Amino acid sequence: MAEVLNIALLGRRNSGKSSLINMVTGQDVSIVSATAGTTTDPVKKRFELPGTGAVNLIDSAGIDDDGEVGKKRVSKTKELIGQIDMAVILYTANDFGSYEQELARLLQKAEVPFLLLHNQSDIIPMSEELSRALSQKYGTEVLEFTCDPFSDEESSALMEKFFEAVSNTIRPYVSKTILEGLVRKGDEIWLICPVDSEAPQGRLILPQVMALRDVLDHDGRAVVMKPEQLQEMLSSPHARPALVVTDSQAFGFVNKVLPEDYPLTSFSILLARSKGPFEAYMKGAACVEKLKDGDRILIMESCNHHSSCDDIGRVKIPALLKKHTGKNLEFEVIPNLEKTGDFSRFAMVVQCGACMITRRQLMSRLKEPMEKNIPIINYGMLLAYLNGILERSVSVFKDAR
Length: 401
Ligand code: SF4
Fold this sequence. Notes:
The chain is α/β, with parallel strands linked by helices. It has helices at 17-25, 67-80, 98-109, 128-138, 152-170, 206-217, 230-235, 251-257, 267-275, 278-286, 307-325, 359-371, 379-386, 390-395, and strands spanning 5-11, 43-49, 53-59, 86-92, 114-119, 142-144, 188-192, 221-225, 243-246, 264-266, 296-300, 330-334, 348-351, 376-378. Iron/sulfur cluster binds next to loops.
């Protein structure tokens, strides 16, 4: 799993969030102090969750913070809920009061899975009766915990329990792998990766790396080439690839050069399938022909500073869409994970490949337009549609194992 999941620690001031992040990561990431409200902005620390992969553990300001500045911190903590994949609500002294209930309500509303952790159990042990009632009410695990264990053995046992509970909670929400069902032992997969002025310096982009790793995980072989090497590859003796995956930028060219019976798709379409609402994107493609003069199209990017994506979302797609429909369309771009005011102004939402965000972040972003029945599609699928090759690109999924 290549995506990095975000797990927030939520709770009142002095419920031990900072101590927990320090204990899990084995470092003094957060300042721990008996003075309530030491954590202001959310603090992130990446670590490897056994059996799941890389996660960001996020410390947050106490939900009971007060005063002018305190209220701002609380609102930042609440904003965080829209951007995370999972939460741990910490409470102490068997006091699961209005603050914790409000957090649970907000998490349920945002459909964020969470578990409950009774902290400081070395001082006041967890009430079995309350934890059973909470577990039943919220359908989640309740962990008895302390950040002040007696011994190394107790510390290891607590960490093991914590990791297991987090893994069990988050596992159903993890995206499929990028090539799930499309590669098996011995398969040869061709990956076509342009190395041009738009490619980042000295590295491959994330979906390319994810695909490479997935091929290796399935004991297949990956052949990586630039688009201009494809013709030469086809003219030389070669093993027939089980799948050819190209960058969306080279889609038109590869589609022309590659024989029709070679299965072809793009990194962006693979990402749409592994973490996006694929069926909704397919329906979105069908709505391109219904666009009218004056319609507004929202381009949603999901990170900053990626010139290639800027170019696709801000230049290529608007130009191609106008040319294809012949309509006078207007475009608006929202960068990073910023929010837009009102989706009903838009006739269509075009989401980027979302390679830098998790499935939950993507789904949370697309929730509102989907609820309002606004057609949505992602860059790769729209480019494939506009180039007349969407059908070919998704037909590879029909026989996915
Ligand atoms: S998250 Fe979106 S904007 Fe950022 S690099 Fe990936 S596809 Fe491009």
